[in-house]
């Protein structure tokens, strides 16, 4: 993950991607738990 000092836009993009990845992972985990 690039540092915020090198590029602000890259930092924002990485943060958004990390948030989306976390949301997808939580969604998959909850659906699996509910499926069982």
What fraction strand? under 5%
Return the structural class: mainly alpha
Order of helices and strands: H
Oligomer, anyone?
Answer: single chain
Principal-axes shape call: rod-shaped
Low-confidence stretches: none
Mean pLDDT: 81
Number of strands: 0
Work out the helix count. 1
Distance between the termini: 35 Å
**C-alpha Rg, in Å?**
14 Å
Main sheet makeup: none
Give the % helix: over 70%
Protein name: Mediator of RNA polymerase II transcription subunit 34
What would a concise description of this structure say?
This protein is mostly helical and 36 residues long. The protein is 78% helix and 0% strand. The protein contains 1 helix and no strands.
List keywords for this structure.
mainly alpha, 36 residues, 0% strand, single chain, 78% helix
Structure description:
78% of the residues lie in helices and 0% in strands. The chain is built from 1 helix and no strands. The protein has one helix spanning 8-35. The protein is an all-alpha fold and 36 residues long.
Which SSEs are present, and which pair or pack?
Layout (H helix, E strand, L loop, with lengths): L7 H28 L1
């Amino acid at each position: 993950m690039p540092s915020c000092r090198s590029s602000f836009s890259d930092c924002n993009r990485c943060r958004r991607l990390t948030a989306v990845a976390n949301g997808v992972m939580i969604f998959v985990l909850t659906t699996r738990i509910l499926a069982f």
